Amino acid sequence: MGTLADHIEAHIKKMLKSSGDNSVELSRAQLANDFSCVPSQINYVLATRFTLERGYIVESRRGGGGYIRVVHVQVEDDLTHAVNLLRSIGSQLSERQLENILARLKDIGVISPRECRLVRGIVQQEVGTINQGKDVLRASLLRALLFYIIESES
User: Fold this and answer.
1) Per-residue confidence of the chain (154 residues) as pLDDT tens digits?
2) Number of H helices, E strands in the chain
């Protein structure tokens, strides 16, 4: 079935696919009305599911004629983009950043849904065993696992 956030995300992605230029202008109030939720739920979906790490740019203008523009950033070479994304991982990585990177790599087809679940599971299991340095270990494990997956497929 999925959560309300899943439904809102799917709706926005459907709108992006049907647009000719990979961008769409939305009304936060209209979306909230369509989904019978509060506007902050729309903000949550935009902030967590449409991030730059996932390949989206969200522009917002508030006020009477305000709008939200969501742009899906297209890359010419998915594999090069994936490697650059992995190289950009710093020495620390939050759980949200991990999810965003995995979602982006899955969306562009660099990793399969199964590989995504495996990487997430391994990272969560190993990070769960320590009390300090979780973000450092998360970054190191993600980089190592994904470089191995990418290298073994090329």
Assistant:
1) 579 999 999 999 999 989 888 889 998 889 999 999 998 899 899 988 888 778 788 888 776 656 788 988 766 566 676 777 777 788 899 998 899 888 888 888 888 999 999 999 999 999 998 999 999 999 999 988 887 877 776 5
2) 7, 3
> Which one, of 147, 138, 152, 148, lies nearest residue 84 by Cα?
147
For 50-94, where are the alpha helices, taking DSSP H only?
78-87
* Cα–Cα distance, 18 to 110 (Å, whole number): 23
Domains of the chain, each with CATH number or no CATH: 4-72 (3.30.56.130), 78-153 (1.10.1200)
Residues 6+ apart with CB under 8 A from 24: 12, 15, 16, 69, 70
Between CA 39 and CA 70 the distance in angstroms is: 16
Please state the pTM of the whole predicted model: 0.61
Residue 105 tokens read as: 């790599």
CB–CB of 123/145 below 8 Å? yes
Write the single-letter amino acid at 121: G
**Backbone φ and ψ of 2, nearest 5°:** 90, 160
